[in-house]
Protein backbone atom coordinates (compact mmCIF):
# COMPACT_ATOMS: atom_id res chain seq x y z
CA UNK A 1 0.00 0.00 0.00
CA UNK A 2 2.82 2.41 0.89
CA UNK A 3 4.67 1.58 -2.32
CA UNK A 4 1.56 2.20 -4.45
CA UNK A 5 0.78 5.49 -2.67
CA UNK A 6 4.38 6.64 -3.07
CA UNK A 7 4.43 5.73 -6.76
CA UNK A 8 1.15 7.54 -7.43
CA UNK A 9 2.45 10.52 -5.48
CA UNK A 10 5.53 10.62 -7.71
CA UNK A 11 3.37 10.57 -10.83
CA UNK A 12 1.19 13.48 -9.67
CA UNK A 13 4.27 15.30 -8.39
CA UNK A 14 5.84 15.19 -11.85
CA UNK A 15 2.70 16.76 -13.30
CA UNK A 16 2.41 19.69 -10.89
CA UNK A 17 6.17 20.26 -10.97
CA UNK A 18 6.27 20.25 -14.79
CA UNK A 19 3.09 22.28 -15.32
CA UNK A 20 3.38 24.91 -12.58
CA UNK A 21 6.74 24.39 -10.85
CA UNK A 22 4.99 23.43 -7.60
CA UNK A 23 6.43 21.33 -4.81
CA UNK A 24 4.21 18.60 -3.36
CA UNK A 25 3.42 20.66 -0.22
CA UNK A 26 2.53 23.69 -2.36
CA UNK A 27 0.21 21.56 -4.47
CA UNK A 28 -1.38 20.04 -1.35
CA UNK A 29 -2.10 23.52 0.06
CA UNK A 30 -3.47 24.71 -3.28
CA UNK A 31 -5.71 21.65 -3.44
CA UNK A 32 -6.91 22.13 0.15
CA UNK A 33 -7.79 25.76 -0.52
CA UNK A 34 -9.58 24.77 -3.71
CA UNK A 35 -11.95 22.54 -1.73
CA UNK A 36 -15.40 23.33 -0.44
CA UNK A 37 -14.42 25.79 2.30
CA UNK A 38 -13.89 29.34 1.18
CA UNK A 39 -11.50 30.17 4.02
CA UNK A 40 -9.06 27.98 5.93
CA UNK A 41 -6.47 28.62 8.59
CA UNK A 42 -3.01 27.08 8.43
CA UNK A 43 -4.12 24.74 11.23
CA UNK A 44 -7.04 23.59 9.07
CA UNK A 45 -4.62 22.84 6.24
CA UNK A 46 -2.29 20.94 8.59
CA UNK A 47 -5.25 18.78 9.60
CA UNK A 48 -6.54 18.28 6.05
CA UNK A 49 -3.16 17.42 4.52
CA UNK A 50 -1.42 15.68 7.44
CA UNK A 51 1.64 17.87 6.77
CA UNK A 52 3.60 19.50 9.56
CA UNK A 53 3.19 23.20 10.37
CA UNK A 54 6.56 24.17 8.90
CA UNK A 55 5.82 22.63 5.49
CA UNK A 56 2.41 24.27 5.38
CA UNK A 57 3.87 27.63 6.39
CA UNK A 58 6.56 27.46 3.69
CA UNK A 59 4.06 26.34 1.06
CA UNK A 60 1.66 29.16 1.96
CA UNK A 61 4.51 31.69 1.76
CA UNK A 62 5.52 30.40 -1.69
CA UNK A 63 1.93 30.49 -2.97
CA UNK A 64 1.46 33.96 -1.49
CA UNK A 65 4.57 35.14 -3.34
CA UNK A 66 3.04 33.88 -6.59
CA UNK A 67 -0.17 35.76 -5.83
CA UNK A 68 -2.16 32.53 -5.61
CA UNK A 69 -3.15 32.84 -1.95
CA UNK A 70 -4.67 35.75 -0.06
CA UNK A 71 -4.08 36.13 3.68
CA UNK A 72 -6.67 37.83 5.86
CA UNK A 73 -6.34 38.40 9.61
CA UNK A 74 -9.33 37.31 11.66
CA UNK A 75 -11.10 40.32 13.11
CA UNK A 76 -12.10 38.47 16.28
CA UNK A 77 -8.59 37.16 17.03
CA UNK A 78 -5.65 38.78 15.25
CA UNK A 79 -3.49 35.71 15.89
CA UNK A 80 -5.47 33.81 13.28
CA UNK A 81 -5.06 34.25 9.58
CA UNK A 82 -7.55 33.01 7.01
CA UNK A 83 -6.29 31.82 3.67
CA UNK A 84 -8.20 31.80 0.40
CA UNK A 85 -7.28 31.15 -3.20
CA UNK A 86 -6.98 34.20 -5.38
CA UNK A 87 -8.44 34.18 -8.86
CA UNK A 88 -4.95 33.42 -10.22
CA UNK A 89 -4.63 30.52 -7.77
CA UNK A 90 -7.98 29.14 -8.89
CA UNK A 91 -6.92 29.40 -12.54
CA UNK A 92 -3.66 27.57 -11.78
CA UNK A 93 -5.52 24.81 -9.94
CA UNK A 94 -8.08 24.61 -12.74
CA UNK A 95 -5.25 24.16 -15.23
CA UNK A 96 -3.58 21.46 -13.14
CA UNK A 97 -6.49 19.23 -12.17
CA UNK A 98 -7.34 17.88 -15.64
CA UNK A 99 -3.67 16.97 -16.11
CA UNK A 100 -3.55 15.27 -12.71
CA UNK A 101 -6.73 13.32 -13.53
CA UNK A 102 -5.27 12.38 -16.91
CA UNK A 103 -2.13 10.97 -15.24
CA UNK A 104 -4.20 9.06 -12.67
CA UNK A 105 -6.51 7.72 -15.38
CA UNK A 106 -3.50 6.45 -17.34
CA UNK A 107 -2.42 4.47 -14.28
CA UNK A 108 -5.91 3.10 -13.64
CA UNK A 109 -6.26 1.91 -17.25
CA UNK A 110 -3.86 -0.88 -16.29
CA UNK A 111 -6.51 -2.30 -13.94
CA UNK A 112 -9.57 -4.33 -14.81
CA UNK A 113 -12.99 -2.87 -14.05
CA UNK A 114 -13.31 -5.24 -11.10
CA UNK A 115 -9.92 -4.10 -9.75
CA UNK A 116 -10.85 -0.43 -10.18
CA UNK A 117 -14.16 -0.96 -8.34
CA UNK A 118 -12.37 -2.84 -5.56
CA UNK A 119 -9.76 -0.11 -5.29
CA UNK A 120 -12.41 2.60 -5.07
CA UNK A 121 -14.34 0.69 -2.40
CA UNK A 122 -11.16 -0.01 -0.45
CA UNK A 123 -9.97 3.60 -0.57
CA UNK A 124 -13.41 4.85 0.47
CA UNK A 125 -13.34 2.50 3.45
CA UNK A 126 -9.78 3.49 4.33
CA UNK A 127 -10.67 7.19 4.18
CA UNK A 128 -13.67 6.58 6.44
CA UNK A 129 -11.56 4.58 8.93
CA UNK A 130 -8.85 7.23 9.04
CA UNK A 131 -11.36 10.07 9.42
CA UNK A 132 -12.91 8.62 12.59
From TrEMBL:
GO biological process, one term: response to stress
Gene3D superfamilies: Winged helix-like DNA-binding domain superfamily/Winged helix DNA-binding domain
Gene Ontology molecular functions: DNA-binding transcription factor activity
Annotated TM spans: none
Domain HTH marR-type: 1-128
Domain of life, source organism: Bacteria
Pfam family, one: MarR_2
Protein's name in the database: MarR family transcriptional regulator
Organism: Jiella pacifica
High-level lineage: Bacteria, Pseudomonadati, Pseudomonadota, Alphaproteobacteria, Hyphomicrobiales
Amino acid sequence: MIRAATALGRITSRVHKREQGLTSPEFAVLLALGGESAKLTSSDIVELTAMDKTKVSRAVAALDQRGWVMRERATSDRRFEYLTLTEAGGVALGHLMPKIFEAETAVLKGLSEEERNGLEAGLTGLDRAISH
